[in-house]
Amino acid sequence: MREPEVTYKPESLTASRPLLWGAAVLSLIMMAPVAWLVGLSIKSNQDLMMGTDSVFRFPYTLVNYLNILHSSQVFGWLLNSVIVATGHTLGVLVLSSLAGYGFARLEFPFRRTVFVIVLFGLAVPEQAVIIARHQMFSWLNLHNTYLGLMLPGFSSAFGVFLMTQFFRAIPKDIDEAALLDNASQFRIFWKIMLPLTLPAQATLGIFTFLGAWNDYWWPLISATRKEMYTLTIGIASSQTNFAQSEGLGFLAAQAVFASLPAIIVYLIFQRHIVTAVSGGAVK
């Protein structure tokens, strides 16, 4: 039997035009601060000292970006952010995948109770535990270390919930077929189940990386030495009396430079987000 052909009526396209125009207008509003920041970054500091309205007038210059290349501190902060964000993301992916598989596919005592306790972590704000965490890390001498900056983010309640739901969506017939072939639980997880969850892992990895890259609260508390600053803390520390020191254009160029790695990561892996949301991992 032939499947019915899908036809698109002009009336439906006409009805959707107001929504498209509304989305376009909202996109422009959201992009306005980004365009303003980029405009500031390509203006000389002397012009900006006379007024920021010079953003809309020529000439433009790349001298602020060239000054970044001559600043060793920025590249040190960038390296710290890369190490912390990458380690944070890998830790969340490993622990969330293992915990999600355990909650979704294994039977053990108090499984539902433990899962509910993990979900309570979504309701606890980070500010509520910051004093206890600070004292604990001080006692362990983990402040001003990469491990100290990464470790608090490993316990991701959202990551455990996401991976649990994704593992539950995979048919259990796959597990049973593997068990008939005498495959161990770890082999089933590593060779069969984990590859099927790559879209969910990519989605979780992107959100985790972006969150770790833009994190300001914990690095501000844990990193007290300048050489251990992440990019967000380093840029913020250089904004004091910016008009008399580096200049507004240079700070804007630093902000654009800091956002480029996160944008690149998102553009590379954005298709996995669509696949995960649409549930296209298992057919």
TrEMBL record:
It is found in: Cell inner membrane; Cell membrane. Keywords: Cell inner membrane, Cell membrane, Membrane, Transmembrane, Transmembrane helix, Transport. Its main location: membrane. Coiled coil: none annotated. Residues 78-269 form the ABC transmembrane type-1 domain. It comes from the Bacteria. It is a multi-pass membrane protein. SUPFAM superfamilies: MetI-like. The chain crosses the membrane at residues 20-42, 77-101, 113-134, 146-167, 188-213, 248-269. PROSITE patterns: ABC_TM1 (PS50928). Pfam families: BPD_transp_1. Belongs to the binding-protein-dependent transport system permease family. The complex is composed of two ATP-binding proteins (UgpC), two transmembrane proteins (UgpA and UgpE) and a solute-binding protein (UgpB). Part of the ABC transporter complex UgpBAEC involved in sn-glycerol-3-phosphate (G3P) import. Probably responsible for the translocation of the substrate across the membrane. This is sn-glycerol-3-phosphate transport system permease protein UgpE. It comes from Rhizobium oryzicola.
